[in-house]
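User: Teach me something about this protein's shape.
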Amino acid sequence: MAAKLEIRDLADRLEYRVTQRHTRTHLFLRALFWMILLAIPIGMAGHSPLFAAGTAGIFIFAAFADVTRAQRGTDVTFTVTERDIISHGYTQNEYHPLNRWRTQAPDLAWREGHSSGENGPVFPQGVYSGNDCVLPLVTMEEGHRIVTAIYSRYPDTAEDSRYDHSSIPSQIITLGISKY
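Assistant: First, the predicted structure itself:
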């Protein structure tokens, strides 16, 4: 199921909202996975009932949390005002709410979904401010259109950004010795 994007161009702000609900099939498959995984500690009950009960309890808690989170789906609102960049909501992947000064935020850009390794976090495709996802699950065309609209309305976005990827040695760590 594709994510639904709502765009609101208001007098004092630009607002984008992405929503996506998971299908019943997806939720059923997730619950089935956890039931199969729960069979492992139940099968170990003959060897150590206390360990099996503890492991089963942990699996049940994790399964409930995972299925509940999946049931909520995605609902993220990204707001750009004269002063701030605000992103809040929830989704499955590596997304965290964000609130930054608009002129000091890193550049906005659309990025493809990626992972930081086999066991690392999964970052969704979407609009990013620096390394932080501010609007997940938008397509490349929508992402470029959103970034263009923001820079058209607020051309000074990221103007005072200190995130230029250049390293500046810390005066505390170097004790100012590098100057002499």
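Now, about its shape. Residues 4-21+73-153 form one domain. Residues 49-72 form the longest helix (24 residues). If you'd like, I can walk through any region in more detail.
User: That's plenty for now, thanks!
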